[in-house]
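Minimal example, chain plus S-adenosylmethionine.
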Amino acid sequence: MIDQCGRNIDYLRVSVTDRCNLRCIYCMPKEGLRLVDRCEILSREEIIRICKVMAQLGIKKIKLTGGEPLVRQGVPSLVENLKALPGIEKVTLTTNGSLLAPQMELLARAGLDGLNISLDTLDAACFQKITRRDELSRVKEGIKAALSFPKISVKINCVPLGLEEQDLCEIAAIGKDAPIHVRFIEMMPIGFGREFRGMSEEEVVSLLEKRFGKMTPYTGESLGNGPCHYYNIDGFTGKIGFISAISHKFCRECNRIRLTSQGYLKTCLQYTAGRDLRRILREGGSDEDLKKEILAALKEKPVGHEFLEKEKKDDTENLCMSQIGG
Ligand code: SAM
Ligand code: SF4
């Protein structure tokens, strides 16, 4: 699918739930977030139907997300169904890792291609402060379980908050001996993320170089679907990546669209632009009707975000990241 700016859209992020077992301070409130009724969330058949139509239009890669996708029952069999769709080459999952270990075998058998595990700190007290939960040991078990399936690529995603106690060198060092790429994601001013300063790529690079020596840009073959750029560190097995949506804006190369757990097709993180695909499904619309709406939404995909502009526009997204899927 080519959008109005000539961008080839072949990557779909599918949120399967707005629920989560953690409460990361930059993503969800401590309490009081209105969770949507279960009947408002797309059923597995509805997800598969939309993905089938998306694949016919040119989507090749699907990432399952949430909330925490693994709080929803049946994710492994959903992976299997999505992998079987003609045109879908890769199905991956982004997870906080805490519920991963018991499901890892099933996910591998279902044909999962890759895992992004979100982990902001290896320090138990700092983990509790950031996620408001005591789940670090289960996340570590999840990472260990994932690494026992060498065909599945494993990446760690870390959001630097700018907290003194968040030791980013320790997180980067996960990729020293293990075949794991560690990626630092710039804090985005979405939802509760607006309350944090975060850290720029330059700040993180300078901090890591003080500990590990010069980092050299990686120029080999592509390591994923998206806008991450990577560096090598001498003596590291994995690479260090950066997804810097604010300081290194990459909207011109944007290849993605998002489906919320309620079936809203979002064409940009910052704006509400998109279409309600659930309405079409539940009103008995045909695959052709779905295609028409998807293509109409693409025509209106914003040129890029304007997070650095002070003025908030009427169509600025008000959802928080757990409701969008990151
Ligand atoms: N629960 C899963 C997880 O944590 O990976 C999937 C959903 S979560 C919303 C997806 C990703 O979004 C996580 O890596 C999380 O750290 C990131 N995220 C959440 N809020 C963010 C923000 N304001 N800026 C940048 N990344 C954010
Ligand atoms: Fe949950 Fe992921 Fe948001 Fe943390 S970042 S609260 S794990 S959805």
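The longest strand covers residues 90-95. Residues 121 and 167 are 7 Å apart (CA to CA).
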